[in-house]
Amino acid sequence: MKRGGQVRETWWNYSLTAIRLADHSIGGIFNQGHEITQLVNSRRERLAEIDRWRDVFRQAPASVALLRGPEHVFEFANDAYLVLVGNREVLGRPVREVLPEIEEQGFVAMLDRVYRSGEPHVARGAEVLLQRTPGAPAEQRVLDFICQPVRDAGSEVDGIFVLVTDVTDRSRAEAQLRITNWQLGEERARLAATVEAEQRAQNALRRFTETLEGQVRTRTGELSRALEAQSAVADRLRATFQTELIYQGFLDPSGILLDANKVSLAAIGAQLHEVVGKPFWETPWFAATPGAGDVVRAAVGRAAAGEVVRQSLELQFPGGPRRFNFNIRPAFNARGELAGLVPEAVDVTDAPGPP
Length: 355
Prior knowledge:
By secondary structure, the protein is an alpha+beta fold.
């Protein structure tokens, strides 16, 4: 349909009903229509956002999976999870079929309890036997994991979100450390025969213990930071996007605006729905500045070709002229395909200029 001087795609629900005359013959047709364009576009945007977050989870270092229904059918599993279970074919298949070895260990029953009760299950240092290579004996792994119920729009549990961290190496290191400490105790007892020998042993033991404690502190700190980084990855991405220090958005590969953060919208006094779906170079950020749209359009084309574009822009905003350090870069998904473009700008109006 032609709207605003342009032909635009619209979506409708409609019906055609025969109109009968007094003699029951058909004298016409009644056509009733209801436009659902906004609903269809909203669904498309939601699916696009889901795809973007799937790419984020797929590249996360922690093992992540989403199970659906009472049979716990795999709907999603990221690369780290597939490596953990030996790169088996999981999507569309129930847990007990994909991982038969964990059923007799009680983990399927645990998933059943989470699904029925709606209460999450958290485990630390759980020993699990996994057959990571077809035909090979099961391998013992030590895992920290969380099984979080997922609810539908009616607040009914319809799935389980699983987050797993393989801590086998850490567990083995801790066991080795306990053995080492026991061995040190035995050594001290043997060296206690004479005062001179005991003194030498104590000095050697003190140096050795300090080294071990330093290594343990370093390793524990690294593991703690890794766990914190894994659990906060999604929140960090969203918080970064909503920073008040830079203007930031997300475009599809053709340059259509899909998202923009709050500080960039506030600068032009606009709401997100007023700019989403427009070519980036036709948005209010550039409309009041002659020639700016052409510059930005060219930058979008270069970024879509794989280039990171950086340049300075002077723009007319409702509050007056502003000067920006502007860049636009391509964003790729796990398959190396262009998923979109990320425009960013820093307001340097009040910063000192070059000498």
